[in-house]
Design brief:
The structure holds two protein chains of two kinds.
Chain A (H helix, E strand, L loop, with lengths): L25 E2 L11 E5 L9 H5 L5 E4 L2 E4 L9 H5 L5 E5 L3
Antiparallel strand pairs in A: 2-5, 3-4
Chain B lengths: L27 H13 L3 E5 L3 H5 L5 E2 L5 E3 L5 H14 L6 E7 L1 H5 L2 H10 L4 E6 L36 H6 L5 E6 L3 H12 L5 E6 L3 H4 L6 H10 L6 E4 L3 E4 L10 H4 L10 H25 L1
Parallel strand pairs in B: 1-3, 1-4, 4-5, 5-7, 6-7
Antiparallel strand pairs in B: 6-8, 8-9
Classes of the chains: A alpha+beta, B alpha/beta.
């Protein structure tokens, strides 16, 4: 899976710029939901058994597979903790976010 | 990084949903959409009525899905999907799958006449109901999918809901639709298999997906998957398929059903229940499970 590309927010300055029909013009990737979280998951790859369960259950699609190992995209992770809860070897731990 | 084992994923890697969507932490509905779209693939049109997903998708002109979305009025999920499918047929496109993706309010209460009409006409759509057991988007009001005993803002603790959940699957099975299945996001492979099967069938297909809602159920966000597994293991929400309204198949038969207390204690909305009320609920669950088993055995 490739890393997500940068997308800018679309802003209309006048009604003339708007499309005639309400339609989707861009993705929500501009919305960096990482700022929502208080705790963040950290993966210890030494203990990882590459089961893919964290990737499978991530509701924010912020875990992607790179070089056969899961990588967390902290731009979008909302810190729900499902990955840490479901990890069979408990190699993901939730740590306090430093602000 | 010493291991050589290659990673085997149980679901296809392609995603049709982007990060940055507006779902709460630990949202089950997002996972339901993710798995259904993995099964139906790129050539899909999704019709979304007013429900959580109308918000999760994002504000105009942005969208968090990579497939076309049609936002429609609350009660018209099934009829809009019918219209989209008819339009596609008119221009000669017979391959695109049309999915109506509605919450439990838009299916059990408000959208049931449109759904019943579509099921009666046997229109070629997949209707997905993600069931979070209340009107979560507008602020946790009771719906007819809310189970007995649950707290919501319109059924407060002193007057909690004292009626059982509506059996929507039996209502739709009575329409004789070609395919109906219940699924839980705790078993994504099963959900994926059912959505894939539904895609290859013609006619109205109904998927009833159980999706926990941490905000409305007052549960911890990390328990979302645990709850959606427990609900199947306790027998509250059994996983089964009904073909042509009569052939029942139970997909997961737990050897020993867990006591429902294990499921209830993880959720704040059931915290006020007394031992007697829990015993009453357990009795009801047992009765429903027996009824399902009777239906299965009567077909054999």
């Amino acid at each position: 899976m490739k890393k997500k590309k940068e997308v800018k927010k679309i802003v209309f300055h006048s009604a003339k710029e708007m499309p005639l029909m309400p339609m989707s013009l861009g993705s929500m990737l501009y919305n960096k939901t990482g700022s929502w979280r208080n705790i963040k998951p950290v993966i210890d790859l030494e203990k990882c058994i590459q089961c893919g369960i964290c990737w499978k259950f991530c509701p924010d699609i912020s875990i992607y597979i790179e070089n056969e190992y899961p990588v967390i995209d902290y731009d979008y992770c909302k810190g729900c903790g499902i990955c840490a809860e479901e990890c069979p070897t408990k190699c993901i731990v939730m740590v306090e976010e430093k602000k | 990084m010493k291991k050589e084992k290659t990673m085997k994923l149980s679901l296809p890697e392609e995603e049709f949903i982007n990060s940055g969507h507006l779902a709460c932490q630990g949202c089950g509905a997002t996972l339901a959409m993710r798995y259904v779209l993995k099964a139906t693939g790129k050539r899909t049109v999704v019709c979304i009525p007013a429900c959580c997903w109308a918000v999760i998708d994002g504000p105009f002109p942005h969208s968090s899905l990579d497939v076309p979305i049609f936002h429609c009025a609350f009660e018209t999920a099934a009829s809009s999907a019918t219209g989209v499918k008819a339009g596609l047929e008119m221009v000669g496109d017979h391959e695109t799958t049309v999915v109506a993706f509605a919450g439990d309010g838009g299916t059990f209460d408000i959208g049931i006449q449109a759904l019943s009409g579509a099921a009666e006409r046997n229109d070629d759509i997949i209707y997905v109901c993600y069931d979070n057991e209340a009107y979560m988007n507008t602020g946790i009001q009771r719906s007819s999918a809310t189970p007995y005993g649950a707290w919501t803002t319109t059924t407060p603790v002193k007057h909690f809901k004292n009626r059982p959940k509506k059996d929507i699957d039996a209502i739709l099975a009575a329409h004789g639709i070609p395919y109906l299945a219940t699924a839980s996001i705790g078993y994504p492979e099963d959900l994926y298999k059912k959505a894939k099967k539904a895609k290859d069938i013609k006619g109205t297909r109904f998927l009833h997906i159980y999706t926990p809602c941490p905000a409305g159920w007052k549960s911890r966000p990390e328990d979302t998957i645990k709850l959606s597994r427990l609900v199947v293991q306790t027998g509250i929400f059994p996983l089964y398929e009904i073909e042509d309204g009569e052939r029942y198949t139970i997909n997961m038969k737990p050897k020993e059903r867990k006591p429902i207390n294990e499921y209830l204690k993880l959720q704040g909305r059931f915290r006020h229940l007394t031992e007697d009320q829990i015993a009453l609920m357990q009795e009801q669950v047992d009765k429903n499970w027996e009824r399902l088993l009777r239906r299965v055995s009567s077909e054999e």
